[in-house]
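Order emerges. For instance:

***
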Amino acid sequence: MSEQSKGFVTEQPGQRGKGYYPKGDHYLFVVGIDEYQQLPKLYNAVKDAEDIIEVLTGRYQFSKNHLVTLFNEEATQSEIIRQLRTLAETIGEDDTLLVYFSGHGEFDKVIDTGYWIPVDGRRGEIGTFLSFDMVTKFVKVIHSHHTFIIADSCYSGAIFTDRKAGDALDHLESLPSRWVLTAGRNEVVSDGQQGANSPFADAVLFRLRKNEEPRLPVSNFCNFIIQDVRNNAQQLPRGASMHGVGDRGGEFMFRLKDYVKQPFEEKLPEKVTQKESGPKRSDERERPPAPPPKPKVPDTFESVPALKAMLKQLVSAHDFEEVFELFNRSVSSSASIYNDLILQQGQYNGLKRSQAQQVISPENLNISKNRIMNALLYYIDELEEEDVKSEVIGQAQPAAGPSVLSELDQLERQGLEKQAKILQKKLNYLRAELGKLSDPNQKYSVEVQIEEAQQQLEEIKVKLGA
């Protein structure tokens, strides 16, 4: 009997190429809100949601048997929470969940928290919203094989949390995943023209309707949406795995209806043998073109533009190893593009494994490398001075002695103390809000935020030795 892993059927020894397929059910939870009770009306949120349902249930592995929808007056805070709780109780380890939210969003700079706004949300009253802290908590307790959230709302990019330095870079193993695709970063996004789709939903629908790949990886899907929206709207989507909620480096895949339960057998590149092609004289043998010379990478750079120019040289030379090494050496973990760079490096490492195992065709290999190359060029352009580690810019410094190390330790301590003050301010604010609330669901929402903030504060206090 063949072995089985969570969500996939593995192959028997000697059956290389038989492939795998998800064996669980596929759940779809869709929220669309146009008619808000106390906030400005939206024109396309419900239409976007209905169009998404049509294409996902019509072309892909989702069916209406496992579809939950909340439109307009149905999408109250309490009902959204109730449905998420039900999904947490229903979904098993082999199942897949896709959540689509289309509506208003908000970001509170005081406590550094983003929100989805339900239909009964009241302007300025965060206890009536659905915080990303709570959404993240539900993602943690929904023990699916894959969870993928698509959010078309303002400030939806705030759902991402910073990845701690030293995380593993294995993003392409066949393991559980938790991914999010948001319509923008921490910014306002467009609802589009009345009667049409939002720019974000338009890109999502275009990719899903035109796709002919039996299995469309979520990373490829996200990269397409980011580029499409970037070309056609004044907003920049973000797609990546979520940190700290059970992601194991896997990837959800959109499967066309005909391939929902089909194991795939990858076609290996055909090898031309000497018998098939016949011997060639030495002057007839084709020699591969010589690779372009690799630029010498200095230890430090005179400016950020000089660093960016070197990175572009390395990308042009297809020296991905050196590109990622220089990125890792230069970019601060607090930079907005840091998580995205980790994702791209994970994808590249997965390509190398696939190439070594001869389970990817040269054509698909080149397509994937070109996607990574385009993404890297974009991140180089986005690189700002504050994203770059100070030691990389300027003249090379002598080896750090005790005084330098002491100074660096002090800077780190100051950063942690600043974070602790912000979290304490957040806790004080939330506790004050909690005392004003009487609705159980609203109180629960704020209590979740308090719990998350308290946990983060305790972790910082341990680092500070407090």
